[in-house]
């Protein structure tokens, strides 16, 4: 039987593909692990921006809101409406999760175009959006999977697994496969769009005068925001689906 050697070769091929890199990267060696320093540095900057902005805006709430307070109240209202639309009346406990995902992805996507990359000189490569690295997008997609399993099990108990045999037990393999493909689709969609946007802008900047890529950069900012909205909407929809049953 040649099935086992073929399977081993297939897995080895997938492992080799996972090591393919686009451009130069800067790594930190921590123990026996290589850590992608570019992603960590930009992620820390994004987290600092979010925490700093929220702290400044809401540390002293006013009866008559300031501009900053107004802005964050609008953002919170938007996230609440998004969560309620996708999850339903039991959306309350999930607003913070959906909001965290949306804001981190939104600012991360924009950081690739707006942060002055030359401020921090790296031995190799340059700073880029954290979401143009597959490890970041997978790390965002996996908690989403845990969240919708947790939501379904919390509401329905073990009866949650009954959805896998609906509307007929024949669909059991397909229904199981669907749950495995959800985090894959979330992570690869976000990764592919952000990576493609940064590659296109990088190529245009290297080939034509700096004024020409500006419209493309503005288009990239728009699509970056759309990608954050799509990720948050799908995450909320998956949670709502797990609480309501199979659609």
Automatic annotation (TrEMBL):
> What SUPFAM superfamilies does the database record attribute to this sequence?
F1F0 ATP synthase subunit A (SSF81336)
User: Where does this polypeptide localize?
Assistant: Membrane; Plastid, Chloroplast thylakoid membrane
What is the membrane topology here?
Multi-pass membrane protein
PROSITE patterns, sorted: ATPASE_A
Pfam families registered for this protein in UniProt: ATP-synt_A (PF00119)
**Keyword match Transmembrane helix:** yes
Keyword Transport recorded? yes
Task: Keywords in alphabetical order, please.
Answer: ATP synthesis, CF(0), Chloroplast, Hydrogen ion transport, Ion transport, Membrane, Plastid, Thylakoid, Transmembrane, Transmembrane helix, Transport
Q: What is its main location?
A: membrane
Q: What terms describe the molecular function in GO for this protein?
A: proton-transporting ATP synthase activity, rotational mechanism
Which segments cross the bilayer? 39-58, 94-115, 190-212, 218-239
One cellular component (GO) term of this entry: proton-transporting ATP synthase complex
Report the sequence similarity comment from the record.
Belongs to the ATPase A chain family.
Q: How is the subunit organization of this protein annotated in UniProt?
A: F-type ATPases have 2 components, CF(1) - the catalytic core - and CF(0) - the membrane proton channel. CF(1) has five subunits: alpha(3), beta(3), gamma(1), delta(1), epsilon(1). CF(0) has four main subunits: a, b, b' and c.
What biological function has been recorded for the protein in this entry?
Key component of the proton channel; it plays a direct role in the translocation of protons across the membrane.
What is the protein's given name? ATP synthase subunit a, chloroplastic
Please name the taxonomic classification of the source: Eukaryota, Viridiplantae, Streptophyta, Embryophyta, Tracheophyta
Q: Which gene encodes it?
A: atpI
